[in-house]
């Protein structure tokens, strides 16, 4: 029996507070019982949070930071009381598995075109042409033949950290691969056959010092209906260790920017690492191209986030117990157009340096602040620590005082990716002290 199901027959004294009936319900319990995956940064954040107590094995819990494997095995059998929170939506994979994400985006694009016309639909043109393999093999071959000489990337749908990925330019490479795959998958049923996607390789990435990079952006969804989305100010760019060139396509250190790949490069320097903080990138681009260009770029990234979430809004099983902290992977091309590469349900929280640890610690702490098990928020906040509310059943705006002209205020999107993250100052002003005493 899962810990959540244990709750079914017991009265849990603590009732959380998200958006409703706060203090009275809360008074009965003086701690929050959490269950957590054994990963360092997450464990540290929960362990150090006042009045949070870890439960082991089958103990009752109020908050669970689980992995997707736990979710798959337990979620459907669990009864959860009103106040309980868990860090994934039941069918998160609709957005976070590479083939399903593209399927949902293609459908969303088609519906937009039908209902609102081409211009509106073109706002979803932010993912490279992608085909599920092997089911869309023939469609892919048609597209391949229309673009002779172009480069493609083959990716397993359910793996991560660059595992099993390769680039190719000739159909013969994939014919051999296809034969091998069909032999090994003969036993499986058709539903499991689509285990790869083939995608147009972005051949003109934006380079800094000759190196390719992609961006990791953190997005917190606390509800799908209505859609409520928070964007974190920090993030980073992950650089490849070799200078980019299209003359060789076999060098993973040149073409794949995953930290887990780059760490194994022979010339990887752990002191220097392979990351830039988002603020550093934003400053670099602003110095080079000016504020307007950079604001357009960051606005385009906001667009990617919101439209990708809208593409699964009707598919994801909305559940008031669930929230999700997504890791978006975005690549810039040399025209500063951002492309969505993938969305991760369990972005790595393993730190690659002290600075990285502090950033991830703050991110996770602020995730707990937004989820607000302690009931310290009013529900009206547009900012909590490093998170800015970007969508609340519609765009969220901020009053931009710099643009104030003739008594009328201009409104801009309430997003500040790569801007100063003075989270502690904000939290000091925003949050009442923790209301509960730790129970010994
Ligand atoms: P994984 O889940 O294994 O990390 P990704 O889809 O994120 O797989 O791809 C790994 C890396 O490969 C990315 O971080 C990026 O550097 C590179 N990559 C993936 N898709 C493309 C693409 N279409 N064009 C250019 N580079 C890509």
UniProtKB/TrEMBL annotation:
Lineage, highest ranks first: Eukaryota, Metazoa, Chordata, Craniata, Vertebrata
Xref: PANTHER family: TUBULIN POLYGLUTAMYLASE (PTHR12241), TUBULIN POLYGLUTAMYLASE TTLL9-RELATED (PTHR12241:SF39)
Organism: Oryzias sinensis (Chinese medaka)
Gene Ontology, cellular component aspect: ciliary basal body
GO molecular function: ATP binding; metal ion binding; tubulin binding; tubulin-glutamic acid ligase activity
Protein name: Tubulin--tyrosine ligase-like protein 9
Keywords linked to the UniProt accession: ATP-binding, Ligase, Nucleotide-binding
Family note: Belongs to the tubulin--tyrosine ligase family.
Positions of region (Disordered): 1-21
Biological process per Gene Ontology, one example term: microtubule cytoskeleton organization
């Amino acid at each position: 029996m899962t810990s959540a199901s244990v709750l079914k027959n017991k009265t849990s004294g603590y009732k959380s507070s998200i958006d409703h009936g706060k203090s009275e319900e809360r008074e009965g319990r003086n701690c929050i019982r959490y269950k957590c995956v054994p990963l360092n940064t997450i464990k540290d954040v929960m362990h150090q949070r006042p009045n949070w107590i870890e439960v082991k094995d089958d103990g009752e819990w109020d908050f669970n930071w689980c992995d997707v494997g736990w979710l798959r095995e337990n979620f459907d059998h669990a009864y959860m009381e009103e106040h309980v929170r868990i860090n994934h939506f039941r069918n998160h994979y609709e957005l976070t598995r590479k083939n399903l994400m593209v399927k949902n985006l293609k459908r969303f694009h088609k519906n937009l075109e039908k209902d609102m016309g081409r211009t509106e639909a073109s706002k979803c043109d932010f993912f490279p042409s992608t085909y599920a393999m092997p089911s869309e093999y023939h469609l892919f071959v048609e597209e391949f033949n229309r673009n002779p000489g172009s480069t493609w990337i083959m990716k397993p749908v359910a793996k991560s950290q660059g595992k099993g990925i390769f680039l190719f330019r000739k159909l013969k490479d994939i014919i051999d691969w296809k034969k091998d795959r069909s032999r090994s998958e003969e036993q499986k049923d058709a539903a499991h056959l689509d285990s790869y996607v083939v995608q147009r390789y972005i051949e003109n990435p934006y380079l800094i010092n000759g190196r390719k990079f992609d961006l990791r952006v953190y997005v917190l969804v606390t509800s799908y209906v209505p859609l409520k989305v928070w964007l974190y100010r920090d993030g980073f760019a992950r650089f490849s260790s070799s200078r980019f060139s299209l003359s060789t396509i076999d060098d993973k250190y040149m073409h794949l920017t995953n930290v887990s790949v780059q760490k194994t490069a022979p010339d990887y320097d752990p002191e220097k690492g392979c990351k830039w903080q988002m603020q550093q990138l934003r400053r670099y681009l602003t110095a080079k191209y000016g504020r307007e260009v950079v604001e357009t770029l960051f606005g385009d990234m906001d667009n990617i986030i919101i439209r990708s979430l809208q593409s699964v809004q009707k598919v994801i099983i909305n559940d008031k117990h669930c929230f999700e902290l997504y890791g978006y992977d975005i690549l810039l091309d040399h025209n500063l157009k951002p492309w969505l590469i993938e969305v991760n349900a369990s972005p790595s929280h393993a730190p690659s340096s002290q600075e990285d640890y502090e950033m991830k610690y703050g991110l996770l702490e602020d995730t707990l602040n937004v989820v607000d098990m302690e009931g310290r928020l009013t529900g009206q906040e547009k900012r909590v620590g490093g998170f800015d509310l970007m969508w609340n059943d519609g765009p969220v705006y901020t009053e931009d005082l710099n643009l104030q002209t003739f008594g009328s205020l201009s409104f801009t999107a309430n997003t500040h990716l790569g801007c100063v993250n003075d989270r502690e100052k904000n939290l000091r002003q925003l949050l009442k002290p923790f209301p509960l005493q730790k129970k010994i």
